[in-house]
Amino acid sequence: MTQAATAAEPRTLAPPGRRLARVTANDALGAYRLISAHDREGPLEPRPGQFYMLAAAERWGGGADERPYLPRAFSYARARRADRGALLEFLLEAVGPGTERLGSLDPGDELALVGPLGVGFRQPEVGTRPLLVGGGIGTAPLVCLADELGAPRVLLGFRSGAHAEAARLFERPSLATDDGSVGRRALVTELLAETLQDEDLPAEGLATTVYACGPPPMLEAVRTICAERGVPAQLALESGMACGFGACFGCVVATRDGYVRLCLDGPVLEADRLQAVPE
Amino acid sequence: MSWQLAAGGWQSGFELCGVPLRGPVLNGSGTFDAIAARRAFGDALLEQFPFDAFVSKTITVEPRDGNPPPRLWETPAGMINSIGLPNRGLEGFLAHDLPQLVELPVPLVVSVMGFSVDELARLLSGVGERAEVAMMELNFSCPNVETGLVMGAEPEETEAAVDRLRPLTEKPLIVKLTPNAVDPAGVAEAAERAGADAVSLVNTLKGMAFDPRTGRAWLGGVTGGLSGPAIGAVALEQVHAVAERVRIPVIGMGGIASGHDAREFLDAGAACVAVGTENFRDPAAGRRVAFELAEPQALPVRD
User: Rounded to an integer, what distance in angstroms lies between the CA atom of residue A102 and that of residue B225?
Assistant: First the structure.
């Protein structure tokens, strides 16, 4: 079922319509929720960094300000083969009417979804070592990427110990928290700068490629740090989207080549395509 | 135009402005990018194409980047967009987009907008002569830089523009009406008098939102267009008013999300319907609406 649109583009094609997946679990993970859904009709192997547009099948609308109306974009955290279909996992934090409604789904409820969408992370070049850098909810797409890469180095940053519970989705990550309750009291980008500093003479001659996802100020710091050191970086960005498949033109971000639709040419962009990560 | 239930869908022989269509469900211009969708969905999109005719995103003479982000705001039962008509321009459209749109399994309608009647004339003759194009749609929701008036806001402006543009193409000409006019039915009548073959409505309603954190306009383009179920009742009234006053076919749209919604527009006098914002929520919305419309209990039988 898995098809690549082009050999160069890490994209698994989506079925051309919205479908229903049954929620199998919705568990607290510290400050976040980890929602699992059984997708019987979608492809079994989305690419790390790709995302799904999610909406609750029932009562989508009628929340605060009579919202939500539009589906919400979520990178998948993990996808596993299940009995007839795939089991998709999404990490979310309730921050508005859409995430609140999704966070309230019970096992057995139905999730309306479209996906996988967008272009995921490109594989590291032969002879390079991946370094994953995640901040907050942006750690989600790095979970499946880490699984695929086979225990790469992972640096994670969180606001608090409750948020840092999401680090349990990774094997032996290096941790930083804003309040120092877990790991170092530091920004994850400080860990990144130190790690790259230590590698001025790359071990075994292996150059590093950075894979990052997190809030815009963090990604901008990652971009700057990597640019100063000539380290290639792939950044998974976020932008408000209505559709997720290039129809609405709402999610554009400014690149050196003008606006690109993040849902179509991203959400993963090479850092050097950006003058700056938009706020 | 007659409507009858035929096995498996609409009666064979159904047409819009002489162009045979397999059914009555179009997309609203700018609410579905078939080229982008093919990248996301592959050739399955062509096998399960959601519309009975495809209306392109609006093109202009010169390429446009569109408005600065943010471009979207969610509202109760709808959204405001301030996209700003990004497109490759006439030459880019002909060289890059048209060859891909030709591969779609349904007739192609090309939507054009100009900042003057001269620009519209260039677009109409540049695109209208192409055999791959079945119909042309004039997006009249834009200020005419020569007069300062929105072309589709006043009957006189509309009639003068269509009168000059009509002879430039042999293709059926659809005039897309703005709901932000004092008398949309008067504008529709003017378009009909000047030789338009159909009218489509409604475009988005003007709207605005403020950033609760800063108290400033949220959208990069300051104001935008409201769409979705939030505007359904307004759209129905305007479609009804227009259909009472013109004999040419009316393409009705505004918040259509189901076969039931589509049927209301047909009951209001529309010959065809278009699905717009619902495409964002479900890329197969057009197919779903067509299917629900063709359900025997949902289908209006008209002679």
Answer: 28
